[in-house]
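Working notes for the structural subgroup meeting. M.R. asked for a predicted model of this chain before we commit to crystallization trials. I am recording the input and output together here so anyone reviewing the notebook later can reproduce the run.

Input as submitted:
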Amino acid sequence: MNILSCRIIMKSSPQLFFFTLFFIFTIVAHANLNSGNLTSNSKIIHVGESDNIQNAFDELLTLPDTIQNAYIMLDPGIHRVQNTIMLNSSHTKKVEEKIYVQSSEKNARTIISGGVKINSTWEKVLSTKCTTTTLWKAMLPSNMNLSISSRLQAWRGETRLQVAKSPLYQYNNVTSKSLNYENGQILSKYYDQNNVLLVMYESWTASLHRIANIDPLNSSLSFQTAFNSQWANQASGRRYYVMNAKELLDEVGEFYIDVLTEEIYLVLNATENPNDDGNDVTIGQHVTLLNIQGENSNLIVKNIHFNGIEFAHTSVETMLCLSTSCDGQSASFLTTALFHTRFSKNIIIDNCIFRNTGGYAVWFDRGSIDNILSNNNLIDLGAGAVRIGEPAVNADLADGNKIINNVMNNGGQVYQMGAGVLCQNSKNILISHNEIAYFRYTGVSTGWTWGFGKTIVSNITTSFNHIHHIGLGYLSDMGCVYTLGHQPNSTIKNNLCHDVQSYNYGGWGYYTDEGSRDEIFTNNIALRTKCAGHHQHYGTDNILENNIYYNVNIGDVITPGRRTIIMQNCDTSIRSSQHNRNINTCHPNKEPTKNCCCFPGCDQGKCSSFTFRRNIIYQPDHFRFY
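Returned structure, recorded in token form:
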């Protein structure tokens, strides 16, 4: 419509003029949100609530010719997937511009769920030990996966239920194979004992173990897999608890799945009836909902835009954990996520919700290039929120990915060491304008090289993030922002960090760990950290400039993970190991010499240094300043 025609409408009928503008605005806005650039050379695939989403994507495999855009339009409601949705390079090969995946109705709630719903009627079993609670049971769906992976999580409505568990205990002593417990902590035998799990706290992790044997006479219990007992020191608190035991089902909100009778048990307040309130109970069935994997760097999955979709209900990845070990930092032993990409490019996830997961929500893995995660909510997470790159050194690095303007909340619900953002071997990464809160471990973790060894990590920017309520008293050795190894051209700037509480040592604001190097920390704020505002384990050529450290090193505050005060004061306002060295002759870029420890195999702490200038440290009078 040109200006002249607008004037004619306005003169003849102002009401018609404004109605026409409103109509045009509505149509254009809806087209921009739900249609992209809709052209005659486009394909629209409609997916009903009971239709198979995989089939919709597979229609793209049978296109006779190339098209400009494709639109996967999901009806509002809950789309329960029977299997992981798998995409490879062939799915995007014949689409020249972009595939749009979104709701068929603007602002309508559209959910892709990996869970099954309890459809049977709940029956009252009996009143529990407390007269204010009631135990209910219901039959499990006939098509439910009954593996241990699906038995550790359930949700009532959108609220996470707690698998039946014991109180938090302290053992007398522990080895890699067994522990000695106090009287009354462990039963002589459990129902379905092979699937009863022990959660064993270490310093910065908490691992899961099956029971091999219980010896009541000696108050001893042995593990099926090794416990990393070298970290069972003061920082672990000698803490453990038992979970997924039917005998421990006694608290409101606890559940237990009995695979022998194929029933689920649930404890509720005596005034509640699960048949009446409309809060369905859902159990996750798949560890991954969407697996986007190209074959290699030449055959990639590309140009897919997910908008306004809600992803929910995944199970817990347990295979490696329960057969080998699961004590890796930041839950790095996990092999997948709810939304997992490999050899992908220009995958955009915008305005979506990720919730009720068993592990990480989103992982831009090997060969993931120029992908964007923006304007999303990632909440109630079994491990961390976002993962970038991988532990292995590989030529096909995750490169150019952006994590911007997201809200990440309530992580570590199963694997407590999950980080808000775990950025491993990768380059050219932007982590910016995110709110990261209520994780039991670190907020943002970047780098994956211990010591002054060679690295492939570079140009990582962590900026303008609001990171708060980290640690919550569960684990030790953490920070709002944690870095590891050489990260040239990397900057940590304009971040706000506050309310960090570790269980024991190491509740720091900013943390340059082993071999951190060539990093600039500038214009950051640290506030109300249990320990130092900045701690450098060891590293060199780092610059700390123009930062504010206010009311740091405050010691313990009562938290959900630590109900007692252990440390009135932690360490210092700024903390680092201190050693004298000639930086002109002793440096990681120099050849190793006898008296220079800037290389793996030596005491690399002797190579540590940083530049500290134009910063403000302010401590209220009631805290000691160092």
